[in-house]
């Protein structure tokens, strides 16, 4: 998969066919001596904590951006919880009210940070 001078092409092609394999999973050129290790380290199926089976090489990205059990932070109270529980928590958390000690009104928790600007 590289440009080779015409004068060296035949020798290069023989060398490649003896020493290099194309991975059937990712189509990368890998030395034959490293192919077993490559497949075991990059393409073996592992199970995420969410029970999804995924290639080992893709696990880190899955855990960071797609896993329903990845950590997420509530925008209202900054509690860290699993992403799949975030929406339910925020709908409760943001709608909860607390009495303002300044004006005595019940203020939604999600509005407490902004309330002092409008509080008498």
Automatic annotation (TrEMBL):
Q: Which UniProt keywords apply?
A: Acetylation, Metal-binding, Phosphoprotein, Zinc, Zinc-finger
GO terms classed as biological process: negative regulation of innate immune response
Q: Single GO cellular component annotation?
A: mitochondrion
In what residue span(s) does the TRAFD1/XAF1 zinc finger domain sit?
79-120
Q: Which residues form the signal peptide?
A: none
Pfam families linked: TRAFD1-XIAF1_ZnF
Q: State a single Gene Ontology molecular function.
A: zinc ion binding
User: Which InterPro entries does this entry report, sorted A to Z?
Assistant: Innate_Immune_Apopt_Reg, TRAFD1-XIAF1_Znf, Znf_RING/FYVE/PHD
What biological function has been recorded for the protein in this entry? Negative feedback regulator that controls excessive innate immune responses. Regulates both Toll-like receptor 4 (TLR4) and DDX58/RIG1-like helicases (RLH) pathways. May inhibit the LTR pathway by direct interaction with TRAF6 and attenuation of NF-kappa-B activation. May negatively regulate the RLH pathway downstream from MAVS and upstream of NF-kappa-B and IRF3.
Name it. Answer: TRAF-type zinc finger domain-containing protein 1
Q: Which organism is it from?
A: Nothoprocta pentlandii
Originating gene: Trafd1_0
């Amino acid at each position: 998969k590289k440009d080779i001078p015409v004068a060296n092409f035949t020798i290069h092609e023989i060398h490649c066919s003896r020493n290099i394999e194309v991975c059937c999973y990712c189509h990368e050129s890998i030395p034959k001596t490293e192919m077993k290790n490559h497949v075991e380290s990059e393409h073996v199926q592992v199970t995420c904590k969410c029970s999804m089976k995924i290639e080992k090489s893709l696990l880190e990205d899955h855990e960071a951006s797609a896993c329903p059990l990845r950590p997420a932070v509530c925008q209202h109270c900054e509690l860290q919880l699993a992403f799949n529980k975030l929406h339910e928590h925020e709908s409760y958390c943001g709608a909860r009210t607390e009495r303002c000690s300044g004006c005595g009104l019940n203020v939604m928790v999600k509005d407490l940070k902004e309330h002092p600007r409008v509080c008498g």
